[in-house]
């Protein structure tokens, strides 16, 4: 999964502002870089970065790295990490179809990895399939019900992909309840405030 995958979600009339990010939380090595407009990740497991679409651009696919990782994956059919790394390389290049393939293979080996599951869901969302993204977020939460980045993702996809504002609010409120001091909870609070400002009828719900 991306070390810190962040989907920058720009609301329409019902938010009127950028409410935050969809976060992943995979752990990879320090050579990872921010992949695409609307996605940000950390370059090391302890370093978080934020960005705007204007500050990020898709990286060109590193064919040499793809070939190296594919050779390793072929030699090691139970190596989930290499498959995650391949997914990341394709994600960085905004080639979400190929990223999906490798994330799915990694999950076949390690089906309870909520981090990779959430990155897979983000790929579905970027592939214009919010329903499948939401299904995958449910799988992430089944593996780890307290996975804060999944809950933040889930709320944003419900809001922006399905226009399900009540569902989005419920996901963000759950996130705040289970992890009130997390960075994801702070983003969820801002999203809820923007939502309730634009939709006063939701205040207090």
Q: What is the annotated CATH architecture? A: Alpha Horseshoe
Here the CATH topology equals Serine Threonine Protein Phosphatase 5, Tetratricopeptide repeat
Structural class: mainly alpha
- CATH class equals Mainly Alpha
Approximately how much beta-strand content do the residues carry? 5-15%
- For the largest sheet, list the strands in their spatial order: 1-2
The description of the largest β-sheet is: 2 strands, antiparallel
> Which ranges are low-confidence, i.e. pLDDT below 50, for 5 or more consecutive residues?
6-56
Fraction of helical residues = 40-55%
Summarize the helix and strand pattern as letters: EEHHHHHHHH
CATH superfamily: Tetratricopeptide repeat domain
Write structural notes for this entry.
The protein is mainly alpha-helical and about 200 residues long. It has one domain (about 5-200): Alpha Horseshoe (Serine Threonine Protein Phosphatase 5, Tetratricopeptide repeat). It contains eight helices and two strands, in the order ββαααααααα. The chain has a two-stranded antiparallel sheet. A hairpin with a 7-residue loop joins strand 1 and strand 2. Helix 5 (about 130-145) runs antiparallel to helix 6 (about 150-160) and helix 7 (about 165-180) packs antiparallel against helix 8 (about 185-200). The model is unreliable at about 5-55 (pLDDT under 50).
């Amino acid at each position: 999964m991306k070390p810190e995958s962040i989907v920058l979600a720009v609301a329409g009339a019902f938010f009127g502002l950028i409410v935050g990010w969809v976060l992943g939380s995979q752990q990879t090595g320090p050579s990872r870089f921010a992949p695409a407009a609307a996605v940000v990740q950390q370059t090391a497991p302890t370093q978080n970065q934020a960005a705007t679409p204007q500050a990020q651009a898709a990286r060109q696919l590193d064919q040499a790295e793809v070939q190296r990782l594919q050779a390793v994956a072929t030699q090691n059919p139970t190596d989930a990490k290499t498959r995650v790394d391949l997914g990341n390389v394709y994600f960085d290049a905004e080639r979400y179809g190929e990223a999906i393939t490798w994330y799915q293979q990694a999950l076949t080996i390690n089906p309870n990895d909520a981090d990779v599951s959430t990155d897979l869901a983000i790929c579905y969302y970027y592939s214009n399939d919010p329903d499948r993204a939401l299904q995958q977020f449910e799988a992430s939460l089944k593996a780890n019900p307290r996975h804060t980045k999944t809950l933040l993702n889930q709320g944003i996809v419900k809001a922006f992909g399905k226009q399900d504002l009540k569902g989005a609010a419920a996901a963000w409120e759950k996130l705040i309840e289970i992890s009130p001091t997390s960075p994801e909870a702070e983003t969820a609070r801002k999203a809820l405030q923007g939502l309730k400002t634009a939709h006063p009828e939701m205040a207090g719900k």
